[in-house]
Structures are given as C-alpha cells and as structure tokens.
TrEMBL record:
Residues 176-220 form the Holliday junction DNA helicase RuvA C-terminal domain. The lineage of its organism: Bacteria, Pseudomonadati, Pseudomonadota, Alphaproteobacteria, Rhodobacterales. Keywords: Cytoplasm, DNA damage, DNA recombination, DNA repair, DNA-binding, Hydrolase. Residues 1-62 form the DNA helicase Holliday junction RuvA type domain. It holds the Pfam family HHH_5. This is Holliday junction branch migration complex subunit RuvA. It comes from Psychromarinibacter halotolerans.
Length: 223
C-alpha cells in the first residue's frame, strides 16, 4: 500500500497531478478543493494516498490530511459511492463539512456534490451517521475523565490550559464525552466552547454520536 507520496509537483491537470519522486512520476487524482490548495509546478508537495485496485486499473487518490483520506475510505464503503462520487463530496464539503453533514443527518449538504442524487445522499447519512465519530476523533488526544476536562480548560475561558491530572480509567459516559470533545476540536472548535457544548449535550445524550450531533446543533450559528 502506498500511503503517502512526497516529491516535486511536475504537472497539474483538471482532476489530477503528477508528482516526481526521484525521477518517477506518480499520477494522483485529487478533488477540486485539494487541487486548489496545492502549490505550483516545481514546488515541493506531499499527499496522503489511497490506492484503488481493479482488474484492469490502478489509481492513486491524494488527500492533504489523514482525516480527508479516512473519509474517502468511509464514503467508498457505501453502496453506490465510487471514487468519483467520494471525491466530489469531499471537494464540495471538505472533510470537516462531511463530518458535520453526516453527524447532523444533513443529506441535503451531501446532495450538493455533483453527481450525487437524493437517494444516495440519504444512504450515505443513514449508513455512516453512527460511524462518523470514529473518523472525526482521529488524532487529538483528550483527557478521558469529565473532571479532567474542567482541569484542562474551563468552558469559555481564554486562559492557557493547565496541566491535566494523571489519567484515570474513564466510565462509559466520560469516555463518550471525551471522544465527542476530541471530534469537535478536530473540526476546529475552540476547546472551551467545545467542552461547554458537550457538557450541555450530556444532559440528554450519553452515546458519542448523539453527543456530537447535539453539540454541533448547540454550536451552530444562531439565526
């Protein structure tokens, strides 16, 4: 498996790039969003990659972050979603947008991707909504006990985080809240506001996926 390629950007196509690695050129297919984020020809570049293997074809797909790559793999697990549709969804929403849409059950956002109809969009949400938190929580370790969350940073506080106490074994509810907090901070929310939303959501939710959905609704812009 080719998991990452780093080299010099040799050529930019409409949906792919050619990266020179020690004299060997790799054609890597990318989304519109990823293509726009890459430097110009001659510049150094690195992409996380996923290799699609078929009987008559080998294709590399490139992503700027491991989160984007993992969402590609997850989307491809849905019946009716091929590589082209997956790249269209990621190109339209980005990995963070996909995380929000699936967690909130917003299949209309998925449908906004070119070539993705309403039935496929609903299938994506229905099949992945309970798996979304595992992808969203990639990277970013957080304390595993709710008491430790308050020690690390107080909701709404701009003060520098204080050192966390020695980790303890988390209860089921505490672990779910820690996973939800990790997912929200990986989406770009500040630790303070994320912790506050998770704490409020925990009054009615106990599962990680439910906590994430409820917290995202609390964090959504009002009006």
């Amino acid at each position: 498996m080719i998991g990452r390629i780093a080299g010099r950007l040799d050529y930019r196509g409409t949906d792919h790039v050619l990266i020179d690695v020690g004299g060997v050129g790799y054609v890597i297919h990318v989304s519109d969003r990823t293509l726009a984020a890459l430097p110009g020809p001659g510049e150094a570049v690195a992409l996380y990659t996923d290799l699609l293997v078929r009987e008559d074809l080998l294709q590399l797909f490139g992503f700027t972050t491991p989160l984007e790559k993992e969402w590609h793999r997850m989307l491809m697990s849905v019946q009716g979603i091929g590589a082209k549709a997956s790249m269209a969804i990621l190109g339209t929403l980005g990995p963070e947008g996909v995380s929000r849409a699936i967690s909130l059950g917003d299949w209309n956002a998925i449908k906004a991707a070119p070539g993705v109809g309403p039935k496929i969009a609903q299938r994506v949400v229905n099949e992945l909504k309970d798996k979304a938190h595992t992808v969203m929580a990639m990277g970013g370790a957080v304390p595993s006990d709710t008491a430790e969350l308050a020690e690390v940073i107080e909701p709404g506080s701009s003060a520098a985080p204080r050192p966390a106490p020695k980790p303890k074994r988390a209860s089921g509810a505490a672990a779910a809240q820690a996973e939800a907090l990790s997912a929200l901070t990986n989406l770009g929310y500040a630790p303070g506001e994320a912790a506050g939303a998770v704490a409020e959501a925990a009054q009615n939710e106990t599962e990680t996926s439910g906590l994430i959905r409820a917290a995202l609704k609390l964090l959504a812009p009002k009006g």
